[in-house]
Design brief:
The protein has 521 residues and is an alpha/beta fold. It contains 15 helices and twelve strands.
Length: 521
Amino acid sequence: MNQRTPSADFASAKELITFTSNRALAVEEALIFEIGRPDVAGVDLDEPEPFASRLGGLERQTPIGLPGLSEPEAMRHYVRLSQKNYGIDTGMFPLGSCTMKHNPRLNERMARLPGFGDVHPLQPASSVQGAIELMAELSNWLLELTGMRAAALSPKAGAHGELCGMMAIKAALQARGESRSVVLVPESAHGTNPATAALLGYRIVAVPSRKDGTVDAEEVRKRLGPEVAALMLTNPNTCGLFERDVIAIAEALHATGAYFYADGANFNAIVGKVRPGDLGVDAMHINLHKTFSTPHGGGGPGAGPVVFSESLAPFAPLPYVIFEKGGLRLVEHASEAPAPARPFGRLCAFHGQMGMFVRALSYMLSHGGDGMRQASEDAVLSANYVRASLQDLMSSPFGNRPCMHEALFDDHWLEGAGVTTLDFAKAIIDEGYHPMTVYFPLVVHGAMLIEPTESESKASLDLFIAALRDLAMAARRGDTARFAGAPYHAPRRRLDETRAARQPVLRWRQAPAQPETLPEQ
């Protein structure tokens, strides 16, 4: 890389104030309400012919208050905003427990093919047999990779998938005539785990982590009883470690009639290496946007399919595809489900996000089983490369030991430096990177969680590591000015995040007009 040290003239020029507040291509973009005016419109419309209102007295009595812009103004505004975004297409995105991997363009091409890109959920089943076959094929891949018995494709996200899995567990317990009230959740869990269980009316009992960051099977056994419905466990966990007692934990749960729910957020670390079903898992959601490279957010609804063990398969929600003698059939109603199916209902009106299904299957078919296994191995290798490259400057909460897909550091190494985890993360923005996940998992003080994924080349990792090493050395030598006000070079400076959370301003209001003052004579 050709790196040049900025001259003194350049450094001082950065602070020059321009008339427009713009800095060359770095445009200071106003709010759309400040650009447009409510008394103008970007189009000319003829006065409508007289008509009878059908609103029944609900007609708007005041102006709508939306800004009027020309088409170029509107286009430029949103393009300029998009240029301020940071995404996986602009740089490395090291958010831990998020698996921000590359979205292959082949997947995008497949999702836009006629018959997939324009499919409608209300089309007759006879006209969308290709889409139904794709759903069946995707389900088969998910079941093969996880070692499970049934799949539900309709959940729209990971948390929605958690809800689906736990609802199936609740339905299975009710079918046994049981009404259990407790769900066990490790202290290192994603926050959606206890939230999902609480939403379904369960009382949450926390399971502490061992000093090595994993869950002790004995701690689970101590909390088991006739009231425990399930345990929700992430494996690999949010500390980036594989839960080595997972089989013993599953056996303990099943011995008391409880179920094992696995949070599949970190499945990217073990695809092709181990099947959760073989470990005793009863239900698990899969984030297609993490493990199988669909876009985060999906341009709208995402996809968080859930897979079920044999004991929970009968309670999988509608709709789902089954194989019959005459071919494939999409089961839409409980009355159409073959015995012994007892679906607990539906999670959404239709069948899930077809665009995400196409992208995920494209990823699977283009990689194959061996390619996905290599992707998992490379993701683990990349995380350990980052961990090993920073271990002499930054501290790890569980010692110098190999991790899985993400490397976890704490803030012990920052003690006495006058720099916090948040300061360090904000300074990373000035280096051109999105920060890592901070202050999570909660079991680690000042946590910094880095997940590079398999997408990054060694050169990309080396530059990222070099940037973090430079920041770490600056923090250690007491260069607090570099951190205290960071980011300095972002479009916006650091916010008061506490006030923004507690007193958010979510609505634009026009500032009151200032009285005109005459110059003194």
